[in-house]
Amino acid sequence: MLSIGEFSKICKVSTKTLRYYAEIGLILPSEINPENGYRYYAIEQLEIMLLIIRLKSYNFSLEEIKQTIESGEWNEEKLYAALIQKRDDMKKQLYEQEKSLRQLECDISNLKNGKPIMSYLDNIDVELVEVPVIYLLFVRKMVQADNFSDEYGVCFGKLLGRIRKENLTIANPPMVLFHSNEFSTFGLDTEFAIPIKEYVTGTRDFKAGLCLKTVVKGSYSILSSVYAKQTKWAEQNGYECTNALFEVYVTDPSQVMEEDELITEVYYPIKKI
Q1: Under 8 Å between Cβ of 89 and 53
Q2: N or C: which end of the chain has fewer CB within 10 A?
Q3: CA-CA distance, 102 to 94, in Å (whole number)?
Q4: pLDDT digits (tens, 9 = 90+) for 56-86
Q5: What share of the chain is helix, strand, coil (3-state, %, to 5)?
Q6: Residue 155 and residue 173: Cα distance in Å, rounded?
């Protein structure tokens, strides 16, 4: 048996932390002296503590660790699945960090060469187009920004399933319309839609009319900048927004290997003031 101090020294975890872990049921002392309250840990618990430390280094929360380690034991199959998920999360975070680093290097280079940091906005082209009336097969729901990619797959999967089942004809690439008047972390009023040639139950007319259009090649991270450029163009030229902003996904994000292969058309419906 090891005293809490000895256990703490070996694992390099403070006694305060060990007491907290016991309080939340993560790892309990093997024995507590009823007379003086001294806590003791079994030699076998060192392995459990080392696993807890390792999982924490992988950014597991204490609750996630607690779900993985039950009653001082762990299920290898459950642990394997949890590690796979955490690995995928870390890869995604690393990818985003690398992307931010590339952008940072670009900004540093521009400033070094005397270019304004926001000069990239000058490379965003805006054109006036007339969008014809189309029939939309759609799913409209509130979607949180963090769940957008998941909802994208689910909703378009449902729409494509119905198209195949009813032998409908796709007229144009899939699109998403954003109906909310403001951004909210609680969710956005989002419409996932596929233009079809037939008018059937569950479809609606979509009359976008006059729009500003920008074709984006590459990452979706620039879309906010595109909307900012379109909004500025509209104000400078005497137009105002009339309808939901929408994006047409010319390339399927699930079918491309690199972000540079993505092609997105961004539309901003307008009318003359």
Answers
A1: no
A2: C
A3: 12
A4: 999 999 999 988 887 556 778 888 988 999 9
A5: 45, 25, 30
A6: 14
